[in-house]
Amino acid sequence: MSEKAKLLIKVVNILLSCFIICTTLSYTEHSLGTNLVKIVIGFLIILVTIGTINFKRYKWITWLIGVGFILPLCLMLFGVYNYNMTQSFKYLFFFSFYLLLVICLSSVYRDKIDVFLFIWQISLSLVLFFLFLVYRGLSFNLMYLLTATLSGQRYGQFLLTQRYGMGFSNVNTLALFSTLLMFCSFYFLYKGKNKLFSLINILCSIIFVLNAESRTPMVLMIVMFMSVVICRIKNDNIRFVTQTIVLILEILFSILFSNLFIAGNTTSLLYQRINEISSYRLSFGTSAIGILKSSGSLLLGIGPLNSTYITEDIFGRLLTLDNSLEYFVFTLGIIGTILIYIYLFYLFFCINRSKSKLGFVSTTFYFTYSIFENIIFLPSSPVSVLILTIIFILMRNYTEQQQQI
Question: Which of 49, 184, 193, 298 has its CA 20 to 30 A from that of 268?
């Protein structure tokens, strides 16, 4: 590797660390302009790396660009989407910006996934430790917190046992970044690297999650554990078949979940059970479909819009679309959602064929998270920046290997 290439990687490492720190702080009550700073840093990463990227290696992204950018843009220009053109153009800009950022990062770290994940791990550790020192207030009455979370009694009478955000504007955001730290730490613990540091991070993440009293990370921890167990199957054929079954179950669940909230048969026992499991995301989707039918097209949706804008300006904060399937049906309609998820599961299928253990854990983690939070190909989502970069790295390696066969 040339000295110029080494210098470039060092620069990107520093910029990525600053980007992660600013992204995390931008979700806090005192963001201090970090929301803008992270955009500037992301632009700098693109600027210093774009000249080194061979875009021919990323032809497989064409489908995503077509469905996520070109198709909505054409429908906007032809007047099909006209709810709020300014917001739609803004969304498409950030969609393109973050997609390009992920491509740049996947190119730089294509053979350095360990470095990429370590930067995430150390950056998240530093910023969460800083927030802990500033805000304090954590409760170590962990059994009480766990019981309150599982039983739904998450707003206790005592201040120290109420839901706690450690400076984040939303308590669930503390859980989100703690979960990402846990994901990176589990990786290094599995690989046998940075064992003590990773174990401490996992324990701290669990404490943060319990204080936030968020249920989603608990589901994700179970999913990560089960994914690791599957990855430890020694027989390659059995492991591949098991992973394929998991992928098929994800596809079937997506079809079932979509059918339930679009049909809106709220009285059925299956609807009620899945609604409870998804923390009532299903009923939010059904309500959103009712609004969509009166102000847009069920087949084509209302147009590309930021999820925060939808929650505040369209729904008046009465409901929110945290589930990715519901978000895409509302914005891109049934047709757009089918196209998006065909591409998503195409990526999952290719990574499964590559027999990458990290790829299987990452895709399963990504899909499970999307049930509870809107993250699939979502611009600016920290989960997408982390996991999509891993997926793009593995996808690029897979396509290059296929071309050599």
Answer: 298
| Number of residues that this document lists for the chain | 405
Nearest to 36 by CA among 55, 19, 61, 58: 19
- Give the chain's domain count: 1
Distance (Å, whole) CA 329 – CA 5: 43
**Residues contacting 256, CB < 8 A, separation 6+:** 274
Both tokens of 132, joined, read 């802990």
| Residues ≥6 apart with Cβ < 8 Å to 352 | 240, 243, 244, 247, 359, 360, 363
Domain that holds residue 235: 216-374
Average pLDDT of 397-401? Answer: 91
Query: For residue 89, what is the enclosing H or E element?
Result: helix 85-108
The predicted-structure confidence for 118-140, as pLDDT tens digits, reads as follows 999 999 999 999 999 998 878 88
Task: Output the six-digit token pair for 218.
Answer: 């608990």
Give me 17's structure tokens: 């660390």
Spatial CB neighbours of 250, under 8 Å, sequence gap ≥ 6: 345, 348, 364, 367
3-state secondary structure of 299: coil
Instruction: Using DSSP, state whether 64 is helix, strand or coil.
Output: helix
User: How many Cα atoms within 13 Å fall on the side-chain side of residue 355?
Assistant: 11
Token pair, residue 23, equals 């992204």
pLDDT at site 160: 47
- Residue 15: its pLDDT value, please? 97
Q: How many CB atoms lie within 10 A of CB 404?
A: 6
Say how far apart CA 395 and CA 299 lie, in whole Å: 30
- Residue 261 in any domain: the answer is yes
Which residues contact residue 63 at a Cβ distance below 8 angstroms, ignoring those fewer than 6 apart? Answer: 339, 343, 346
What Cα–Cα distance (Å) separates residue 275 from each residue in 260, 267, 272, 282, 370?
A: 9, 11, 5, 5, 15
In a domain, 277, yes or no: yes
